[in-house]
Amino acid sequence: MKLLFLSHYGELLGANRSLLSLLKGLKNNTEKQIEPFVVVAAEGEFTKELKKNNIQFKIIPFLLIMQVISPKEKGVKKILRKFFFRYSSIKSKIKNEKAILKILKWIEQKKINMVHSNASVFDVGQLVANALKIPHLQHFREFGDKDYFLVPYTSWQNVRKEWQKLDAKIVISKAIEKHHFSNQNKEQKKNTFLIYNGIFEKETFEELKEKSEQKKIQHQTMKNKPFVFTILGLLHPAKGQNEAIRAFAEIQKKYPNTILQIIGKSNFKGYQEELENLVKEYSLKEKVIFEGYISNPITKLLETDALLMCSKAEGMGRVTIEGMACGCVLIGKNSGATSELITNKQTGFLYNSDYQDLAKQMTFVVENEEFCNQIRQNAFVLVKQNFSTENYVSKVIDVYNFVFKTIK
How far apart are alpha carbons 122 and 246 in whole angstroms? Predict the structure, then answer.
């Protein structure tokens, strides 16, 4: 079986990290004899990993079928944005038509059996599959509007109508499924599959557990070790780093021997400056550390006591699972898919409203070490059982088999 995968960016962020796990798993699954080929819209850390793992790929730029429109845009800026929206739509269509021709040329001798798009924000995969008259499967890893402020060039209604033509849909959480496909009939639900991302191999989970236990023993012998809070992910208003800083400012009043690490880079204009100004406003310059983007943040997570997930609409949250695997106590916003991964006071802590509620949960974690140790153990058992790459790859292969069986 030969599969063509498409990714709309070249960095090694959440969606591409999940895709990389899948590609490596498929390549190593000699029993099924699946050969992956990848088209990536840009060069980056992801393409370096593809090369390192001997996965065939081609960089062919293509554009999304939607555009970011910040809810903060007002006045003249908003009017100009509407004016250029139509222009961007035409530009996207023309560029994508050229990209499709290049993709078809690259794969013309490869005898591809199926196309798998790694996100829901582009339609190039569907158009390539149509041209080849082969099945198309699409991964739904994002809300689009709630998490990245995306607006389709047509309309959400039209885009979701087109999605119903897919041969299969993989959603990474119940929250994503409810957001995009709540009105599906019984027949339409048959080709919609809920598959959580696979994060680590089972063996790696055990290795991380051992490392986290060693770190804990080391920390107990250290004098005046600060309590480390971390928030990890793309710097974006929807990810809630501003809420984390405000809550941390409350913690500092009572527990000055604490620090907050902010890991990730911004792709949202002005947001990092906004966060830095907030740090200055609360006089936290020595206590809040901007680490920037880290391709493999495991070392930082192993040093972390509590991991914050403040996203208002998290599609799933690879970071949440990674944190649990590394022995962090998770504190997450009770929204999106975060509440699917965290059971309050059993595998982590959920907060419901603003930064003050978050600060209460952070305070509890600092003050209740023994209780939190049990939380850590519960969380590790959960993630090892449910989020291994072995299970993930197996379930995706089941979807491929379903598609071929249905088409035949």
Answer: 36
User: DSSP assignment of 206-227, as one string?
Assistant: HHHHHHHHHHHHHHHHSTTPPE
Query: Could you tell me the maximum CA-CA distance found in the chain, to the nearest angstrom?
Result: 66
Chunked in runs of 10, what are the mean pLDDT values of the chain (408 residues)? 96 94 87 89 97 97 92 71 83 96 96 97 97 97 93 94 96 96 90 95 95 87 91 94 97 96 91 96 96 92 97 93 97 96 97 94 96 96 94 96 87
Residues facing 351 on adjacent strands: 333
- Of the candidates 72, 71, 7, 73, the one whose C-alpha atom is nearest the C-alpha of residue 44 is 7
CA distances in angstroms from 27 to 55, 195, 202, listed in the order given: 8, 19, 17
Q: How far apart are CA 138 and CA 121, in angstroms?
A: 10
Q: Could you give the angle at which helices 241-254 and 355-367 cross, rounded to 10 degrees?
A: 50
Backbone angles phi, psi at 135, to 5 degrees: -65, 155
107 vs 3, 57, 131, 360, CA distance in Å?
10, 10, 12, 55
Q: 230 with 258: CB under 8 angstroms?
A: no
Q: 142 Cβ partners below 8 Å, 6+ apart? A: 15, 119, 120, 121, 148, 176, 315
- Is the CB of residue 52 less than 8 Å from the CB of residue 295? no
Q: Which domains does the chain have, with CATH numbers?
A: 2-198+388-407 (3.40.50.2000), 202-386 (3.40.50.2000)
DSSP secondary structure of 126-153: HHHHHHHT--EEEEE---SHHHH-EEES
Nearest CA-CA partner of 12 in 58, 37, 49, 53 = 49
Pair 127, 15: CB distance under 8 Å: no
